[in-house]
CMP-N-acetylneuraminate-beta-galactosamide-alpha-2,3-sialyltransferase 1 (Cirrhinus molitorella), 324 residues
Amino acid sequence: MNISNRLTPRYFTLILSFMTLFLLFTHTPTDITTDSFDDSIFEASCSCKTCIMDFMDDDWFVYRYDPTITPLLNRKNSALRRDTYKWWRGLQPSSLRVNYTEVVDQMFSLFPDKDHYADTSPDRCRTCAVVGNSANLLGSHYGSLIDFHDVVIRINKGPTKGYERDVGSKTTHRILYPESAVDLDNNTHLVLFPFKIRDMQWLISTFTTGHITRTYTRVKSSIKADENKVMILHPAFIKYVYEKWLLRHGRYPSTGFITIIFALHICDQVNVFGFGASSTGTWHHYFDRSRTHFKGGPHGGDFENKTLHKLQQRNKIIIHKGYR
Ligand code: C5P
């Protein structure tokens, strides 16, 4: 009895030491860290080396980026909040009285009525090139780099023919509106940027009767494009870009800026080409000598540029500077 009483504290110390050593060797600090967190925090959001949705702890990005917003319209998501409808109708006001719901119905009896790009997955690595129309592309030799992307989004009239070495030849998407429309090949998605209901009516007309030849200016009555590849930017998405990303600078986003935010929502990696002035400070197109005015006009050009540079600093996009 006495002996066992004397031994108990020693045995107790011995057992404690064993237990400590066991815990130390079987449960290293790294294990403890990993086990005590939810695995999903560390799960990559895509299978590219870097993903847009990585590091969602960045307050600046998280404040602006709404992963739940749907960039493209379909019948199911077409209802607009009263304030959205009012804001959108105010962009390019018209005295014509048109029923939005009827126009949406007509559009989606012609064009794919789908939940586009609801396919985010840790196994997906969708690389996208957004190609703006800046003359800084000339002499850049970016053509093959641009074509290497899964998705190549071009804007308005930006041509490829004759400029392949610098801008590439592949186009999977082209963002346009009636006044900037051009013919597309059968591999290209026409993505309408609707500033007004008349633009949606023009889209219907261009694939059917061809009766709309004017908006605020003359427009093409018909264009070549595959109607099974038509998509329409959602008016609520346009307002989201204006409010969240541009903090209401300018009157509405430029086509180039909205295209980059669109890419952030449908791609895992975004490379940007053909944005910005050329080294001489001029804002020419690569395909004509017309000057573009990004500082004035309806767009918050300076603010857009600053926002793009912040996106680059945060590794959400890479801006390829161009040559000239
Ligand atoms: O002139 P356009 O609007 O067709 O150009 C498409 C987009 O390309 C613009 O919205 C702008 O973002 C970008 N661009 C640019 N610098 C230029 C010309 C165009 O950043 N010199």
